[in-house]
Automatic annotation (TrEMBL):
Record flagged with keyword Flavoprotein: no
Name of the protein this chain belongs to: Alpha/beta hydrolase
Keywords from the named record: Hydrolase
Entry-linked SUPFAM superfamilies: alpha/beta-Hydrolases
A single GO molecular function term of this UniProt record: hydrolase activity
AB hydrolase-1 domain boundaries: 25-132
Length: 283
């Protein structure tokens, strides 16, 4: 794996650690969950054969500290961070953007707020549960997670959150099922340190986000809504598929489940590359 060039971008209220490798048109990778730029290590080199690949730690995560550690979070601010990175790394040229999970929500808002900066967005299972008919049940989950975080701490709260994102009736994963590949295990310490911030401020802000459906419908030719092939029935998959239907596109199947990026990196990178290509090149 080639070593990325690292940098730090000052933005209002934070400093953003970012990593760049490859050459060609810019592809910005937005992490989701409690992850950071390293969550893309398994796919970045493959994509860097065709693109200048940039990944970063979202504000408040890992190496991107907030000026005010207690500051509340808004999707719009995270999307503006992404826009500022595009301005830095691809000035004047619309870029391709991929986001996973909560990072996919950032990517959706980036597309609607700054369409001039975006050539194509691939949003993998954005948990925009506010679009679902059972949105109230997901609001109740977020409230339970917040209460568990306050009363018992981040690990029980994460267990509560993960259970709420499984398909009804699915058992909790066995220890063997969640064994991490070596690259993922190496970054596990930072991910664990990010959990209180993720659960306490990212989860409530992002899972209450309602996308602008009319705006997304107008921009649907630039949008791919990706769904994990093994995630049918899970809330993020349901939300992405429902959103695709509402904006008039077909959901795109991707390898694995909600974390297919980690569990199936080679297949995931190849699938993503296909959806990033210009339509004429795919025909």
């Amino acid at each position: 794996m080639s070593a990325p060039v690292t940098g730090c971008l000052r933005v209002p209220g934070a400093s953003l650690h970012h990593e760049v490798r490859g050459r060609g048109p810019l592809l910005l990778l937005i992490p989701g969950g409690a992850g950071d730029a390293a969550s893309y290590d398994g796919v970045a080199d493959a994509l860097a054969a065709e693109y200048t690949v940039a990944a970063y730690d979202p504000r408040g995560m890992s190496r991107s500290p907030l000026d005010d550690p207690g500051a509340g979070q808004r999707v719009a601010d995270h999307a503006d961070d992404a826009r500022r990175l595009l301005d830095l790394l691809s000035p004047g040229e619309p870029a391709r953007v991929f986001g996973a999970s909560s990072g996919a929500i950032t990517a959706l808002h980036l597309l609607t707020a700054h369409p001039d900066r975006v050539a194509r967005v691939v949003a993998h299972e954005p948990p925009v549960v506010e679009v679902l008919p059972d949105a109230a049940a997901h609001r109740a989950l977020v409230a339970r997670v917040q209460e568990t975080l306050r009363a018992r701490g981040p690990m029980p709260a994460m267990t509560e959150f993960a259970a709420g994102l499984r398909k009804d009736g699915d058992p909790a994963p066995s220890q063997a099922a969640v064994t991490l590949p070596p690259q993922a295990a190496a970054r596990a310490g930072r991910t664990m340190a990010n959990l209180p911030y993720f659960l306490g401020r990212i989860v409530p802000a992002f899972m209450s986000y309602a996308p602008d459906l009319h705006r997304l419908r107008d921009l649907a030719d630039r949008l791919v809504l990706a769904c994990g092939e093994d995630a049918h029935g899970e809330p993020p998959h349901r939300a992405a598929a429902f959103l695709a239907d509402r904006v008039g596109t077909a959901p795109a199947p991707f390898p694995g489940g909600h974390v297919g990026l980690t569990t199936h990196p080679e297949e995931f990178a190849a699938t993503l590359a296909g959806h990033l290509a210009d339509p004429a090149a795919r025909d």
